Amino acid sequence: MLTVAQKAIITATVPLLETGGEALTTHFYRILLGEHPEVRPLFNQASQANGEQPRALANGVLMYARHIDRLEALGDLAAQIVNKHVALQVLPEHYPIVGACLLRAIREVLGAEVATDAVIDAWAAAYDELANLLIGAEAAAYDRNASAPGGWRGARPFRVARKEAESDEITSFYLEPVDEQPVLDFEPGQYISLCLQVNGQEVRRNYSLSAAPNGRSYRISIKREPGGVVSNHLHDEVHEGSTLDVFPPSGAFTLAHSERPLVLISGGVGITPTLAMLESALRTARPIRFVHCARSHKVHAFRASIDALAKKHPQLERFYCYEEAPQPRSDAQPHAVGRLDAQTLSQWMPAAKQDVRDVDAYFLGPKPFMRQVKRSLRELGVPEHQVRYEFFGPASALD
Ligand SMILES: Cc1cc2nc3c(=O)[nH]c(=O)nc-3n(C[C@H](O)[C@H](O)[C@H](O)COP(=O)(O)OP(=O)(O)OC[C@H]3O[C@@H](n4cnc5c(N)ncnc54)[C@H](O)[C@@H]3O)c2cc1C
Ligand code: HEM
Predict the structure, then answer these.
(1) Which residue intervals define the domain FAD-binding FR-type in the entry (predicted)?
(2) Is 166 exposed, middle or buried (0-12, 13-18, 19+ CB in 10 A)?
(3) Using CA positions, which residue lies closest to atom 9 of ligand 1?
(4) What is the number of other CB atoms lying within 10 angstroms of the CB of residue 320?
(5) By residue range, what is the domain housing residue 162?
(6) What are the pLDDT digits (tens) for 84-96?
């Protein structure tokens, strides 16, 4: 339990972390990944290289320090961390390793004059408190996943039952459990994690479930990333009949129950969770606008299946925006060319009443696209609390 004096020290350290937080966590990750090969497979090396992961953790630590007196205010952030940790199978035994590296990094970055024994003790106590909070929430999530129908704990082998190209760069993998038993249901928008051996190294990656739950199998749809370790391995080395180790579904980017019109907006492979959401929403009567942006027709995945759904379900209207102008005679014309902006989006959204568009909007895609969509939705009068999004990587600020 943190003492009043320790809380005061933590509060006083916040400005220091706000200016030096990222350097601190960059140094921390260098120690952690350099000296503890046992936790390396959990971390995506690309997120380390571009600084996203250190920034995400810096943000986690800062938010905690800012709210040290009322941890309940952390609400969504704690849930987000727990979801990420559970997806990648962070375990209680990992916490002391991370804690020791964090404290060492604080000492080394701040120097002995600032990082006195009292400061280090306060942060050690704070880390323990936060770690216990996360370990408890994570244990509850692991238990829920293990005890629910079709559930399991840790890795479960799945066979690739079918592999299907959806565009020049996206391929779907249909996964069935090797034990032929039912699989855990999930909320549309959630993702599973794969644990693989690539070039003799263990790696883990998250993939959104791209079809609604059916109790027997999962579908994921994967974009080949230039230079990407896992996506290229899956495209080139994993075939029908191969087996993959899968961790249970996780994630908080889920379709909330609502009768409001639903607007799903995606860019590129960001389409995957919106497909499961769309399928599930089509079982209700709510009007749906499905907006998808792609560089061109060649990399536009699932066009035929969305078109077929729109034909079958009058409640669904779909709109496509291609960055590159298509051939004039192509029969796969988009509804707009260029980058999606507020003006185009406004024409595809239900009309505003007194400057408010009472819709639920969900979006996902490359970061610049997400920034633009967030701005546009605000400009078009969609209430902030009715807008939800997720990142295909560590979370970061969009504003
Ligand atoms: C919740 C969630 C859901 C997701 N859902 C999907 C999905 O449905 N479909 C999908 O395709 N993806 C999805 N992703 C992304 C997915 O998890 C992987 O990040 C993606 O497949 C890339 O992994 P990779 O191993 O191929 O690439 P990585 O090896 O991780 O590399 C990614 C990029 O970084 C570059 N890079 C790698 N290492 C370095 C380095 N050291 N220095 C500089 N650059 C480097 C690579 O060249 C590449 O361009 C999701 C991610 C999350 C978090
Ligand atoms: C109190 C301790 C911890 C805090 C405050 C914390 C905080 C965070 C935050 C804020 C994120 C980003 C979440 C997001 O992107 O949405 C994250 C992700 C992650 N954390 Fe932690 N974490 C802690 C402990 C640990 C431990 C013990 C491990 C295990 C070694 C771990 C492994 C990871 C991994 C693997 C990710 C995802 C990284 C990626 O996307 O590459 N964390 N954590």
Answers:
(1) 153-256
(2) buried
(3) 222
(4) 20
(5) 156-250
(6) 999 999 999 999 9
Q: Is the CB of 227 under 6 A from ligand 1?
A: yes
Q: How many domains does the chain have?
A: 3
DSSP states of 300-347 as a string?
Answer: -TTHHHHHHHHHH-TTEEEEEEESSPPPTT-S---SEESS--HHHHHH
Q: Which of 217, 250, 283 is the last residue of a domain?
A: 250
Residue 339 and residue 361: Cα distance in Å, rounded?
19
State the Cα–Cα distance between residues 280 and 259, nearest whole angstrom.
Answer: 13
Cα–Cα distances in angstroms (integers) from residue 373 to residues 52, 220, 276, 293, 388, in the given order: 21, 24, 20, 11, 11
CA of 161 to the centre of ligand 1 (A): 23
For residue range 218-246, list pLDDT tens digits in order.
999 999 999 999 999 999 999 999 999 99
Atom of ligand 2 nearest to the CA of 42: 35
Question: Domain check: are 316 and 181 in the same one?
Answer: no
**Could you give the residue ranges of the DSSP H alpha helices within 89-218?**
94-114, 117-147
Lowest mean pLDDT among 12-16, 114-118, 317-321: 12-16
Chain Cα centroid distance, residue 349 = 25
The answer on 235 and 354 residing in a single domain is no
In this prediction, residues 297-312 reach a mean pLDDT of: 97
Q: Do 300 and 335 lie in a common domain?
A: yes
Can you give the CATH number for the domain in which 312 is found?
3.40.50.80
